[in-house]
Specification:
two-stranded antiparallel sheet, alpha+beta, Alpha-Beta Plaits, 9-stranded mixed β-sheet, 5 helices
Length: about 210
């Protein structure tokens, strides 16, 4: 058995794809590329494919990570060539490398995710910078998130590692942020912009990096 780690980007035309649909997309791609995936045992075998951190619907990405287990050995360059020929427009493989079979899972190693977020400019430059400074200096940010199961109350502050202003124009504001993305919790860019005082949902959220331990 062989374990390969794939880095890939996800563009605008596939940003509304659900995580389950993404898994199906990759399985079809590997099947068409004649790549021999390894499967779990039991009554309902599943392809051994795992992602570092599922991407929220409506978000694009520069570098997603996925581990794939194969039944035999395949050179990364051959694997990438076969796979890329079958990938749909909107997903582009950027790297394939061999990973040790016994290495810790991707999900357990992810610590942070970095984003570039674009929102409608609702305030002056100085006000945005002050809002960022105040949020980062806060010891606690009580937050409520409405879910299907009810309202969840928690502290938003531990989920935010850093925020920085990238660019501000007359109609838009671009902010960078590094948010917790681990088994302890995950920050959501749209919640951070709301905490900064932006009333509207960001019109673009782009994940640029996943940081492993």
């Amino acid at each position: 058995m062989q374990r390969l780690r794939i880095s890939f980007s996800r563009g605008e035309n596939l940003k509304f794809l659900s995580h389950l649909d993404l898994i199906r997309l990759w399985e079809r791609t590997f099947r068409r590329a004649n790549i021999q995936l390894a499967y779990s045992e039991g009554f309902t075998p599943h392809a051994k494919i795992s992602f570092a951190a599922p991407l929220s619907v409506g978000t694009t990405s520069q570098e997603e990570l996925m581990d794939v287990f194969l039944t035999g050995w395949c050179a990364p360059s051959v694997f990438e060539c076969q796979m890329s020929e079958q990938l749909p427009v909107g997903i582009h493989a950027t790297d394939v490398k061999i990973i040790g079979i016994e290495e810790a899972s991707l999900q357990s190693r992810v610590r942070f995710a970095e984003y570039v977020v674009e929102s409608r400019n609702e305030t002056r430059n100085k006000t945005i910078e002050v809002a960022i400074k105040e949020l980062l200096s806060s010891k606690e940010i009580p937050w409520q998130h409405q879910r299907d199961t009810g309202c969840k109350t928690y502290d938003l502050r531990p989920l935010v590692d850093d925020i920085w202003l990238i660019e501000i124009e007359e109609l838009s504001c671009t902010i960078g942020m590094r948010l917790l993305c681990s088994t302890k919790g995950a920050g959501r860019p749209e919640q951070v912009t709301k905490a900064l005082g932006f009333a509207e949902h960001p019109f673009r959220i782009h994940r640029t990096k996943l940081i492993l331990n």
